[in-house]
Amino acid sequence: MTNNEESQVKAGEESRQPEIIYCPGCNKLDSFNWLKHLPPEVADNQIVEVRFKNTRKGFYLNVNNLRLETGDIVAVEASPGHDIGRISLTGPLVREQMKKLKVMPSSAELKKVYRKAKPVDLQKWEEAKSLEIPVMLRTRAIAAELKLNMKISDVEYQGDKTKAIFYYIADERVDFRQLIRILADEFKIRVEMRQIGARQEAGRVGGIGSCGRELCCATFITSFSSVTTSHAKYQELSLNPQKLAGQCGKLKCCLNYEFDCYMDAQKSFPPRDIPLELAGKTLYYQKTEVHKGLFWYSTEPGTAMNLVAVPVQRVKEIQEMNRKGVKPELLIDEIPGDKPSESADILGKDSLTRFDTVNSNREGRSRKFHHRKKRKHNQKKDG
Question: Of 261, 225, 229, 262, which is closest to residue 245 (Cα–Cα)?
Fold first, then answer.
């Protein structure tokens, strides 16, 4: 191989970039563009949504009228320098997203999209990302030396390696001015400290919840509503902190999802702290099955012994009768002569010998097959 051929091969290997495949739906806080099939004349790409590391997103102006699609890597305006991100949303749906997040689409507030990322931009971006974990570990060590009561949870470098955002968690106010000076001198970058909560940290790190799915905070939740133990109490859930806590150590956000449904279902329920007075015994409330409309009572207060399920309507009737001084004989009205029907074992599932006849038939068929095969073999030998 000549020198020219060797140089061409080396140049080809250097110019060959690793293929970056974008998979919609597999990214944190990904959005489904249900208006992407609109014709180009209707689609408006003047404003696009750009996603950066983990859950950080922003809206940018496409001042150069670039043909941008979801998944394209672009260089955008930053302060200072430029940043590298991926297009996460285009078209008319961007305006709807801005209305939802209450972002005013004024050109003075939005920064610009410079260009589609070049190989040089991608190379510098990969170098910046490779520095994030070592810098985070070193920053944690420096914070421990300075005895700062804070946890550095993540570091995000800007695409041009001139700035880094340090995300931290702290229970109280922290004076990190000395920490910023040390970081700026050691890493030669501009430092920005950004405080986040435990739920935001779980959303940035990601993971799998106890339900087996990806964390809600890492997939679609953008604003975190307050969750209290009353949400679990009204849904008749066990007040076990280990079962109610999520990956962040706080109460699970999914306790909010069905809370309103449970509250609406319980509006017509009678009071639960009133015992049911029957002729000869008293029943005490234990628990509720909200969507089935059942109250469970026991004969002893505070213990779940001899539990009996009573429909909500019947509870109302008994409480009304008790107010009038009447104690019913029966807890649940029974229709005379109405007996539960016995279930017939049609398929013979309860029989212990239900497979014996089947097996004997199979054995008989296999025996006949072997005899027939042996007879044919003997006939061939005689012939």
Answer: 229
Name the residue type at position 205: V
Residues 6+ apart with CB under 8 A from 89: 31, 33, 48, 49, 70, 97
Q: What is the dihedral of CA 301, 305, 309, 310, to 10 degrees?
A: -30
Q: Which sequence spans correspond to the domains of the chain? A: 18-117, 127-200, 225-266, 276-323
The residues, ordered by sequence, that sit 6+ positions from 251 with a Cβ below 8 Å of its Cβ are 227, 228, 229, 231, 232, 244, 245
CA angle 330, 336, 342 (to 5 degrees): 105
Q: Which pLDDT does position 158 carry in this prediction?
A: 92
Q: Give dist(CA 52, CA 194) in Å, integer.
A: 15
The token pair that represents 206 in the structure block: 């990601």
Q: Show Cβ contacts of residue 275 under 8 Å, excluding neighbours closer than 6 positions.
A: 282, 283, 284, 285, 301
Q: What predicted TM-score, i.e. pTM, was given to this entire model?
A: 0.64
Give the model's pLDDT for residue 130: 92
Looking at residue 181, its pLDDT comes to: 93
pLDDT at 7: 52
DSSP 2: -
Assign a CATH topology to domain 127-200.
GMP Synthetase; Chain A, domain 3 (3.30.300)
Cα 35 to Cα 311: distance, rounded to the nearest angstrom: 48
**What are the residues whose beta carbons fall under 8 Å from the beta carbon of 128, sequence distance 6 or more?**
157, 158, 159, 160, 161
Helices (H) and strands (E) in the chain, counts: 11, 12
- DSSP per-residue letters across 118-139: PHHHHHHHHHHHHTHHHHHHHH
Mean pLDDT by 10 residues, the chain (383 residues): 51 47 54 66 76 86 87 90 89 83 74 91 92 93 92 91 92 89 92 89 84 85 83 86 87 89 88 87 88 87 83 90 87 49 52 57 62 70 61
